[in-house]
Amino acid sequence: MDKKIQQVPQKVMIIDDDPFSVMLSKLKLKKFVDEKNFIEFYDTQNALGYLGQILGSEAVMIPDLILLEVMMNDATGWDFIPQFNDLMMKYNNVEIQLIILTSSQFFSDYRRALKYKSVKGFMMKPFRSEILLDVYQNAIAGKVGAQNEIYQSFIV
Predict the structure, then answer these.
(1) Which residue of 8, 60, 99, 141 sits 20 to 30 Å from the alpha carbon of 135, by its own alpha carbon?
(2) pLDDT value for 145
(3) CB 95, CB 62: distance < 8 Å
(4) Does residue 132 sit in helix, strand or coil?
(5) Residue 37 pLDDT > 70, yes or no?
(6) 12-151 in CATH: which number?
(7) Which is nearest to 31 in space by CA: 133, 146, 124, 147?
(8) Nearest CA to 67 among 36, 104, 39?
(9) Do the Cβ atoms of 13 and 41 come closer than 8 Å?
(10) 35 vs 60: CA distance, rounded Å
């Protein structure tokens, strides 16, 4: 029997202002990602500062995947995305998959995310780790994944 080889993220950055959501995300992803390979930020500005520092160096903690909550109190995930895009244009030799993982249930947020080429996936909390892994694998393959299951939960 031929088994499908799954590519999993080695390092994951979680940007969310809710510590409980960060803890749950890490808990669900532990079956794929080693505990020491999580990077967590509770605001977008510190996350951008960190990315700016490590992308210009030979750092080993460059994330393969960023999980971004767009619904935050201060600087939101929507504020983060254009600045992230600027960093990625400056350091175009780095490949980081940006997936929105949000508590928003509004279809307008999904449509807004589609406007950004850097956003490779959009998932709502709570999530199943297997679906997130599928979205990640589709993102690195240049495909869009898991939209049908996500779409059913939206408030239009």
Answers:
(1) 60
(2) 45
(3) no
(4) helix
(5) yes
(6) 3.40.50.2300
(7) 133
(8) 39
(9) yes
(10) 15
- What CA–CA distance (Å, rounded) separates 23 from 146? 23
Q: Over the stretch 145-155, which tens digit does the pLDDT of each residue have?
A: 444 345 445 54
Q: How many CB atoms lie within 10 A of CB 73?
A: 8
Which residues have C-beta within 8 Å of that of residue 33, sequence separation ≥ 6? 8, 9, 10, 11, 12
- The answer to whether residue 49 scores a pLDDT higher than 90 is yes
E strands, 50-142, are 65-68, 97-102, 119-124
Residue 24's pLDDT is what?
92
Spatial contact of 55 and 108, defined as CB atoms under 8 Å apart: no
Say how far apart CA 123 and CA 121 lie, in whole Å: 7
Reported as a single tens digit per residue, the pLDDT across 87-129 is 999 987 788 989 998 888 888 998 898 889 889 888 888 888 8
If we measure between CA atoms, which residue out of 50, 112, 110, 114 comes closest to residue 84? 50
Sequential DSSP letters for 19-53: HHHHHHHHHHHTTTS-GGGEEEESSHHHHHHHHHH
